[in-house]
Write a structure and sequence with these properties.
This protein has 4 helices and 19 strands. By secondary structure, the protein is mainly β. The chain has 2 domains: 5-181, Protein Transport Mog1p, Chain A (3-Layer(aba) Sandwich), CATH 3.40.1000; 194-288, Lipocalin (Beta Barrel).
């Protein structure tokens, strides 16, 4: 059976690996977002969407999001962040499924559950439901993702056309949401906090007769590998730009990133996070791109 689940989550093909295949032309686009901290977790909040926390069970966050301008379609997502002591964490799939089916009384399951793995190793089970609301056919996609130190119950609801336009938001929420609040110092030794994954950039320019501009870009990958690129350009000079390339592996030990270069050199760099998009390292402030 052709399931709608594959097309919705296919938008993050680079972040999500499927057991099957997904046609890229069918994948919905992903809306722009900013990473936002809540107690115990970090999650994407979409630009030009309304975001409304609702009353939640103990040790959870319950948030509803919807595009502010939807034309003739209606679409919304609901994300429940289950913190370590939440009842959902005893059996995320079982408890989550019961919660969703009780919520969707009158809806019917479509096909069999679909399982896949996020790039960070998180296991996900997704289900599809169909029902009627005021005579209109409504699709609901539910996903249960076991993350390190927490779990996600995610629901998307709308028409098939609205999923094609807005459904990419579900893939973003699954891939980007992490727990522990993005505080690097709370991560166990040897781990890479998901909030550190990405490309961090520092830039500087100086004035004078011979202006100098420098840029450093460090990309940290979920598998613990990294790439490093630095360039310095002196204006009004015949000298070629000075460029440096490097790469290797990186682990987090407390609040210190330990980089082991392919050359065998090891560098220990203390870091300090400010929110989720600013990182101070080696006296420089890096911005997440």
């Amino acid at each position: 059976m052709k399931s709608f689940i594959g097309t919705v989550f296919g938008v993050l093909a680079a972040l999500v690996s499927f057991s099957g295949t997904t046609r890229a032309q069918d994948a919905p686009s992903a809306p722009e977002y900013n990473m936002t901290e809540v107690q115990g977790a970090v999650l994407p909040v979409f630009k030009d969407w309304s975001t409304q926390p609702i009353q939640a069970e103990q040790n959870t966050h319950d948030i509803v999001m919807a595009p502010k301008s939807q034309g003739d379609s209606t679409f919304a997502v609901r994300i429940i962040l289950a913190l370590p002591n939440s009842r959902f964490m005893k059996d995320l799939e079982g408890e989550g499924h019961q919660f969703v089916t009780k919520l969707l009384q009158g809806f019917e399951a479509v096909g069999e559950p679909n399982r896949f793995t996020l790039e960070d190793g998180s296991k996900v089970m997704a289900e599809e439901f169909k029902g009627q609301i005021k005579g209109t056919t409504v699709l609901v996609l539910a996903a249960y993702a076991q993350k390190r130190n927490g779990g996600i119950i995610l629901l998307g609801m709308g028409s098939e056309s609205s999923f094609k336009e807005y459904g990419g938001a579900m893939g973003v929420l699954l891939a980007k949401t992490s727990f522990q609040g993005g505080v690097a110092g709370k991560v166990e030794k040897g781990a890479i906090d998901p909030v550190l994954v990405g490309t961090w950039v520092w830039e500087m320019s100086s004035g004078g007769d011979y202006p100098v501009s420098s840029k450093i870009s460090v990309t940290i990958n979920p598998d613990g590998s990294y790439t490093y690129y630095a360039i310095t350009i002196t204006s009004h000079s015949d000298a070629a730009p000075s460029e440096t390339y490097d790469g290797g592996t990186v682990v987090l030990e407390g609040n210190v990133l330990v980089f082991k270069s392919q050359s065998g050199q090891t560098t220990r760099t203390p870091i300090q996070m400010q929110g989720t998009n600013m990182l101070y390292a080696g006296g420089r402030g890096f911005i997440k791109q």
